[in-house]
Amino acid sequence: MTAAASARRGCHTSTRRAPAYRALGAVAIALLAAGPAWSEEPLEGWDLLLRAHVQDGWVDYAAIAAWPQRLDAFLAWVASTDPGALPTREEQLAFWINAYNACAVRRVADRWPVKSVKRAKDFFSAKGCDVARVPRSLDEMELVARGFGDWRLHMALARASFSGPPLRSEAYAAGQLDPQLAGQTARFLKDPVRGLLVDGKRQRLS
User: Fold this and answer.
1) Could you read off the pLDDT of 176-191 as tens digits, one per residue?
2) Phi then psi for 128, rounded to 5 degrees?
3) Can you say whether residue 37 is alpha, beta or left, with left for phi > 0 and alpha for psi between -120 and 50 degrees?
4) Strand blocks (E) in 56-150
5) What's the pTM value of the predicted model, to 2 decimals?
């Protein structure tokens, strides 16, 4: 299209500005690739990741694997934090639930695409994540979390399996832990596929 034709159609373009636009685009891409802002807390980043990539229990592992910065930042915080030093029981339990779920997401993302974690060797027993600088397996993390004595924990730990409890699309937080666990439990038990199935005299819990 000629310059005259562009003017007649109201198109105000300038070839001199193109390099500037390309430079701005490159800066934007670099900022996105750099990951979350420095002011973002690790737990906040984990919460934002869940809200962005988990919908109705379905996890976009491909997107997480392609842009893992928030997951990396949260797991680095888990690795450097002593949960026993957290001041309340609710904070400690929320820590273990979030740490377990993030570690499970990491193990799937590292293997993506994978059809089933049941086919992944040592998925639950291998020491794949650090907690307070101690290598832990998912089985070990679950055992510690169960020590808090809350039976609803079963519905909060997402085992990256369709038959198991779904991953919640938000992080567990100490101030909201009780309603979060209650809501997650009710949702799971009402699910006829994943949760409690009552068929005549038979009952089944995933």
Assistant:
1) 999 999 999 999 888 8
2) -100, -10
3) beta
4) 58-59, 127-131, 134-137
5) 0.77
